[in-house]
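Researcher: Here's the sequence for the chain we discussed earlier.
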Amino acid sequence: MADIELAALASTQGGLVTCQQARDHLSHKQIERRLGSGRLVAVRRGVYRCAGTPVTPSEPLRAAMLAAGPLATASYCSAAEVWRLPGIVAVQPELTLPWPARARLPGVRSHQTRSLPAHHVTVHRSVRVTTAARTLADLSVYLGPQRLGRLVDDGLRRGLLELDDLREVHDTLACRGRKRLTVLRAVLEARLPGFHPAGSPAELDVRRILVKAGLGEPVPQHQVVVGGNVYLLDWSYPDDLIGIEYNGWEFHRGRSAFDHDAARAGSLTAAGWRLLTVTSATVPVTLVGNVRALRAAAAA
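Model: Thanks. This is the structure I predict for it:
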């Protein structure tokens, strides 16, 4: 009965439990026996994975959050990965805790803040994380206006935030005397009320065609890390390892662009991805047929 209750708890935490949670259901000797038999697996100090739970890319972050305690929130680059912001990779879990709470954990970057209102925190993909707007504001201390602006526009297109959300975060942090808000301020000043993130109409057409054909919602700007390089796919179905790239002539002409695209495609293909290139000449029936064929190949 204790194992069933512990497994039920773990299922809500990505298959993980803390040492204290395990002790709430099992004795010390029972935990030791389960560790010895592999029914529990030590992930990091004080955190176990229940047997049968698959290892996922998010496990290091989830384990760090459990070890840091209930006040820990995924933030900065880790939050960017949760929100799938393009081009941002967390080299280690990044957490924020409200001052004076502190987490000193090996391999974890921990931030303290006196300003983390409840409405700046949410749950996304079952992870307690800073909102998309707060995440972008935090990242603004590392990024320039151009790159932050692209991330903001991506979030607006995907419906992750509104400009009013970002302005509220800016004003909240500014009232607290937080420095280095100049980049965020510049991005907001360039996006007045009524601003629309003018994405590529051709890329948006690809999504519309795929959804209308019943192929499901493709993931935009999915990032794939291969050999230390981060590659962004315009659209993808990650579960099937299918990437769809829209190539406009104005951005892909020239020898350097040709060589870059070839090297990029080679790396992704070697990593198991099936890539489909779409141009202005690709008709919808061909696009849909090709995606269905790639899905059938993936299933086979």
